[in-house]
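Checklist before submission:
- one chain only
- standard amino acids only
- sequence pasted in full

Submission:
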Amino acid sequence: MRLAAHELHDLHELTMSCVNSITNMGYMLQHVQDQEFKSILEKHFPFHVRDYNMKVEFLNQMEGAKKELSLLKEVGKLTDFTKSPINQYPPVQPRTAVDNMNDREMATAYLLTLKRAGREYAYSAMEAANPEIRSFLQTCFMMSCTHAYDMWQYMVNKGYYPLEPADQNMTAKIGAVYQVVPENQEQIQKYINQYQSPTSGASDQLYQ
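Returned file contents:
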């Protein structure tokens, strides 16, 4: 595929990132002890391989990628999305000599890898000129978001990631600063009718 110079460099960096992610996941799959964590890795792993292979195709094939990357739905599993089910968080201290990583260390590494990848995909998607590459990178961003959400919820349930409700008085105080803009006003309706911006779905299609 013909690429702009910045697209080539972005794809190179993102492909190298995939090499790192897949290699780390390969290690984790052989060492993780918790079955729930292992099941998450097993579910995610084929999508990371497909993501990588599509990048290789973009870099090497004139017609671009032949494969497709599925757009995943997010699944909320926590009973309370503002408060951890753990009353006391288990302490952690970085180890300076490591033979094998434990489950908490691997879960932390994987979640942070997904967050970093998501930011890189978002930035690259904004910069991409080719519509096909833009669409691919946007889907990669959503994949990173969905996989990170799976891992974040796992870590919250284990007490590895603190989750506490915001102070209600502060929430009310800050919320009162902002007032809703009426969307039925003539100016806005005029623009909606004049431009008819195309849509490909709604936000509620991204979760279930």
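Reviewer check: The longest helix spans residues 131-158.
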